[in-house]
Amino acid sequence: EIYQLTGPSLERALAIGREIVGLDPVSSKGHQLVALGGYHLILMGFTDSAETLQDEAFRAAREAVRYDTRDEYSQWALGMVLGSLLGRYDEAVSAFREALRINPNFSLAFASLGSISGYACHPDEAIANTEIAIRLNPRDPSLFFRYSTLSLAHFVKGDFVTARDWAQKTVSSKSEWWLGHALRAASRAHLEDMEGAREAGAELIRLFPNFSINSLPFRAVQNRRHLEGFRAGLRKAGLP
């Protein structure tokens, strides 16, 4: 259910996780599923209850680690909530490093190290870890996340051509991933391709009618200066 990464599949995963925890409150896997379901619903912009789900995901991720310190997926889930949703970069890195200590070939930990480094606007770290993740698992069904990380990293570096190209690859791989459309619109706007920027912005609004520059599904750009550049591109693309 998690790897389908659709609204209904993530809702089902969350419900299954809650059911498992209800039957066995010390089930690490149950808490892990609650954390991952809630986290991805927020990340993908598939929920109107982000604040409530964020609190639940954070509690569940901590419980998952508490009940099984040797499960790399629990450490990974905790790191994602800390880094992506809460902006606690250093703590997230520690969780991913622990996941890699448990399993040095755990591609998702490298992938998420890349993602949170992108969100925190550390582009070189984002690119390096993302490239490792792709090499380790080139058929990962969530590869579109890797593409958007590369797009964001190059956007932060001011390379809007490469950012645009990776954003295009992102939306071609997963049309429901809002960040790919946003990066495509913002990159094209900064390249003064206004027709392409407006086209990308219109597609984003078609998929997410309630999208707003001032209320992104999560803090995809956590550095204030780079966030302003991202928002400026989205405004030029005609987004509300």
Q: What's the topology here?
A:
Layout: H1 7-23, H2 28-43, H3 50-67, H4 72-85, H5 89-102, H6 107-119, H7 123-136, H8 143-156, H9 160-173, H10 178-190, H11 194-207, H12 224-236
What's this, in brief?
By secondary structure, this protein is mainly α. It contains 12 helices and no strands. It is globular and about 55 Å long.
Largest sheet: none
What's the SSE pattern? HHHHHHHHHHHH
Number of strands: 0
Global Rg: 17 Å
Poorly predicted segments? none
User: Helical element count?
Assistant: 12
Characterise the protein shown here.
The chain is mainly α and 240 residues long. Helix content is 72%, strand content 0%. It is built from 12 helices and no strands. Helix 9 (160-173) packs antiparallel against helix 10 and helix 10 (178-190) packs across helix 12 (224-236). It is globular.
